[in-house]
Design goal:
By secondary structure, this protein is an alpha+beta fold. It has three helices and eleven strands, in the order H-E-H-E-E-E-E-E-E-E-E-E-E-H. It has one domain.
Length: 187
């Protein structure tokens, strides 16, 4: 084993140990999810690929989304967003709770900007919704095996994400616009 491979495996092992110990995920409200997100878009996953980050420390899986609708922010016809983990050559990184997407999948995603510049699903799987043929939202139900916990001090007026399940895309869009307007912000 080369020194580079050994150090890469050590980095993966230490990241895995850090993430594997985290079994709880702060549960977000609709308002928190919307506020944290730079973009909220709908579309179809066109393709995915894996690669190292610029520092060659962590592997990321990148997804190309053909955008069919923008509900917050400004998006091009296609965007790329990324999730931690994947396999490059013989090296791999598994991240508990990381969100996965499949080519052809039709989704609505809440996306936030990471310090490395990548867009990523906001709140882990809380920011991913499958869209059925009728344009209704269906939440990711597993959360990657992580437990959602309420944050202390969360305002009671906030809307639980479970209320979005089964909602039409048009109703969600109206809710996002109304929330942003109540905050004095444009879409």
């Amino acid at each position: 084993m080369s020194a580079r491979t050994g150090s890469g495996l050590l980095a993966v092992a230490s990241l895995w140990a850090t993430i594997a110990g985290a079994t709880s995920l702060p549960g977000l409200s609709f308002e928190q999810l919307t506020d944290r997100s730079e973009l909220v878009v709908t579309g179809r996953i066109a393709r995915s690929w894996t690669g190292w980050d610029i520092e060659h420390k962590y592997i990321w899986t990148h997804y190309e989304l053909g955008v069919s609708g923008t509900h917050k922010g400004s998006a091009a016809a296609t965007i790329t967003f990324s999730e931690p983990g994947g396999v490059v050559g013989i090296e791999g990184l598994a991240v508990a709770g990381a969100v996965g997407y499949q080519a052809g999948e039709r989704v609505l995603v809440f996306l936030e900007r990471m310090p490395n510049g990548y867009l990523r699903t906001t709140g882990w799987s809380q920011g991913k919704y499958d869209l059925d043929p009728a344009g209704r939202l269906h939440a990711e139900s597993t959360h990657g095996g992580m437990e959602l916990v309420s944050l202390r001090g969360t305002p009671h007026a906030d809307t639980p994400l479970r209320t979005l399940n089964g909602m039409s895309l048009a109703d969600l869009h109206a809710r996002i616009v109304a929330h942003l307007k109540s905050q004095g912000r444009a879409r």
